[in-house]
Amino acid sequence: MVELAQSYAAAVPELSVPWRADAPPDPALVWLNEPLARELGYDPAHLRGEQGIAMLTGQIEGTTAQAYAGHQFGSANPQLGDGRAVLLGDLVDTAGTRRDLHLKGAGRTPFARGGDGKAPLGPMLREAVVGEWLHAVSVPTTRALAVLTTGERIAPRQGVTPEPGALLVRVAASHLRVGTVEYAAWHLDRDALRALVEHATERHHPGAASPIELLESVGRAQAELVAQWMLLGFVHGVMNTDNMTLSGEGIDYGPCAVLDVHRRGAVFSSIDRGGRYAYGNQPGIALWNLSRFAETLLPLIDEEAPDRAVERATAVLEDYEGWYLDAYALGLARKLGVSGSRDEVLDLGEQLFAQLEAQEVDHTGFFRALEADDGATLLEDREWFRRWEGMREGSPAGSPLLVPRNAHLESALRASHLGDLGPVHDLLRAVAAPFERHPGLEHLEGPGEGAEDVVTFCGT
Ligand code: AMP
Ligand code: MG
Fold first, then answer.
1. Beta carbon of 112 within 6 Å of any ligand 1 atom
2. What's the first-to-final CA gap in the chain, in angstroms?
3. CA-to-CA distance for 173 and 353, rounded, in angstroms?
4. What percent of the chain is predicted at pLDDT more than 90?
5. Which range of residues forms the domain containing residue 128?
6. Ligand 2 mean position, distance from CA 70 (Å)
7. Is residue 454 one of the residues assigned to a domain?
């Protein structure tokens, strides 16, 4: 069995408390991610055994609950933290990369406030499906190693029927969030803040020689991440600063969704009434979050002259738009099979997306049709196709055939709630190899019925 280290608690002891997960009464593996298990150095058969289940359910020494703060929907919240999760520890995987193992749904922790500390099966499976898909399309993401049921029935999040309690074992480059640094900046002394920033730099951005370079490095990573999301039509749904990592991996897929019909204003989250985290707002929100991150770093950027620190941080943040547009235009040129200047590609894209939106065309379907040389059947605008032909170079490439469509995901989660895990296993198989056709699963390629009415729930 791979021994877990506690690198985080060792580096900044002020930012977590020793904490043990509740022992589940009757744990059962619903899904084990065998390729990921092997990548981590675990024998899947061992993880399925008694010792493996003990580790996966957090019944081991040394586990902690992490403290963090954050800006939620624009408002500062000084005290969040793992209300229902524990950090199991970290290990160095077979490729030599240090990774965290984390357990969600582990019961109330000292950070739980009013929450019950539990997690229902559906949302844990959703996070697993979305993580596997993002990984399969080469987008940096946390991933699920396993989903288990606990044997409990827990209070319903919606409706009145008790739900199966579940655990998600999550693998991440780390669980350092913008909100973690906010917590240190707001509650701890300068030395603890510095220790945290040094730990984050060493772990994720070893090329950064100073806090200002860390800001740049995190900014570039986030710009690239959000550009990939935009190109896929992915809506994270709750881009609070506590849901933004320093590593550049996407994390905490709660009320997230993938666009069916292309719509800039698309919102799927039941609690996002103002549309703050709408599809088209995501690049700007990432910059807003980075600005909060920058504020936490100010005392380390220039200890003597606060004004100079602000100037230097502002200069870095001003580059964000360029990083984002570079990454976005590069990806879009590949998807469209065109070459041209950044502005030409962006302009072609803008015209295209305006048309897709006006004609209510499916985002994923359009790019796949373009790859199949069939795009003209989906879009009436001849002028756009003439412009596109003029910029063509090579074939459109890199757009997935399969995305976790809202209607299919919802219906698979409903089935799992009722005890039928077949559909969610099908979906996991399909999204893990999203560029190929899966015989028997062709129905997962289209949006399905009722796709536009999907609302997902936060904090589940
Ligand atoms: P999330 O929406 O999962 O990112 O969670 C936001 C915050 O609420 C985090 O601090 C979570 O740990 C906490 N939280 C969410 N659900 C629960 C729950 N059932 N019990 C305790 N804390 C929770
Ligand atoms: Mg979160």
1. yes
2. 32
3. 34
4. 93
5. 7-175
6. 10
7. no
Mark 400-437 as b/e (b = at least 16 C-beta within 10 Å).
bbbbbbbbbbbbbbeebeeeebebbebbbebbeebeee
- Percent pLDDT > 70 in the chain is 98
CA of 192 to the centre of ligand 2 (A): 23
* Closest CA to ligand 1's atom 13: 83
Report if pTM > 0.85. Answer: yes
- Quick one: pLDDT band at residue 380, thresholds 50, 70, 90? confident
Please check whether residue 241 lies inside any domain of the structure.
no
Measured by CA distance, the residue closest to atom 22 of ligand 1 is 83
* Ligand 1 center–CA 241 separation, angstroms: 14
Instruction: Report CA-CA distances (Å) from 452 to 210, 342, 357, 460.
Output: 46, 33, 14, 21
Contact 110 CB / ligand 1 (< 6 Å): no
What atom in ligand 1 is closest to the CA of residue 118?
Answer: 19
Task: Answer yes or no: 343 catalytic.
Answer: no
Q: Is 150 contained in some domain?
A: yes
Number of structural domains (the chain) is 1
* Residue 460 pLDDT > 80: no
For the stretch 218-276, pLDDT in tens is: 999 999 999 999 999 999 999 999 999 999 999 999 999 999 999 999 999 999 999 99
- Ligand 1 pocket check: which of 16, 84, 158, 180 to mutate, most ligand atoms within 8 Å of Cβ? 84
The yes-or-no verdict on residue 160 having pLDDT over 60 is yes
Distances (CA, A) of 194 to 205, 210, 215: 15, 11, 14
Establish if 157 belongs to a structural domain. Answer: yes
**Is 453's pLDDT higher than 90?**
no
pLDDT bin (cut points 50, 70, 90) of residue 457 is low
